[in-house]
């Protein structure tokens, strides 16, 4: 199946595309809301500006794909491969990304409000200016991540690994960071007002009582 056939089938009412192979496909601004793309290979595909609201992309391979400015609101991306994926200014509001691999993903100014990133790997991800208001990040790895100016207000980051992350000017107010690891993190100008830090390892290596 090629990109053109996929769009034609979607337009005719088909929504089940599980396991299709569309590496490096050109699907910019495609409308695929609610599509079942589970276990699909869309690695290197251009989905810039596409609408994938409520789509099932669980276990899909989206590594190095271009999803900048795409709308993935409410999408299922559990266990997806998003290594080095371009998600700049993408909308991921209420999306689920549990155990997703976002290593090195480009997520500047992405909207991740109310998203579930529990146990996801965001090692060295670029979340500069991203909005993660009330996001769920239980045991999420944000090691070495760029969170400069990110909004993490009221996020649930219990057990998250933020070691060596850059949180300059980040808003972490009212966030739950119980037993989180902040060792070596850069927190200059960050707002931790009313954040819960019981049992957390602080940037200086000391444990918060």
Q: Could you outline the blueprint of secondary structure elements for this entry?
A:
Elements: H1 3-11
Mean pLDDT: 97
Question: What share of residues are in beta strands?
Answer: under 5%
Distance between the termini: 57 Å
- What gyration radius follows from the Cα positions, in whole Å? 17 Å
Order of SSEs? H
Shape: elongated
Give structural attributes.
little secondary structure, elongated
Would you kindly provide a brief summary of this structure?
With 209 residues, the protein is low in regular secondary structure.
Descriptive notes:
This protein has 1 helix and no strands. The chain has 209 residues and is low in regular secondary structure. It has one helix spanning 3-11. The protein is elongated. The protein starts with a helix and ends in a 198-residue tail after the last helix. The model has no long low-confidence stretch (mean pLDDT 97).
């Amino acid at each position: 199946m090629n990109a053109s056939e996929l769009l034609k089938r979607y337009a005719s009412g088909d929504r089940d595309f599980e396991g299709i192979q569309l590496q490096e496909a050109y699907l910019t601004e495609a409308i695929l809301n609610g599509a079942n793309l589970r276990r699909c290979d869309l690695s290197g595909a251009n989905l810039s500006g596409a609408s994938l609201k409520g789509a099932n992309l669980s276990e899909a391979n989206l590594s190095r794909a271009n999803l900048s400015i795409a709308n993935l609101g409410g999408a299922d991306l559990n266990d997806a491969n998003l290594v080095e994926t371009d998600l700049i200014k993408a909308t991921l509001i209420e999306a689920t990304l549990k155990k997703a691999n976002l290593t090195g993903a480009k997520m500047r100014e992405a909207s991740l409000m109310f998203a579930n990133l529990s146990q996801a790997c965001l090692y060295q991800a670029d979340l500069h200016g991203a909005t993660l208001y009330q996001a769920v990040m239980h045991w999420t790895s944000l090691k070495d991540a760029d969170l400069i100016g990110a909004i993490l207000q009221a996020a649930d980051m219990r057990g998250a690994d933020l070691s060596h992350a850059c949180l300059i000017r980040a808003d972490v107010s009212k966030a739950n960071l119980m037993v989180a690891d902040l060792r070596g993190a850069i927190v200059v100008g960050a707002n931790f007002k009313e954040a819960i830090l019981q049992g957390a390892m602080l940037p200086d290596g000391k444990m918060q009582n």
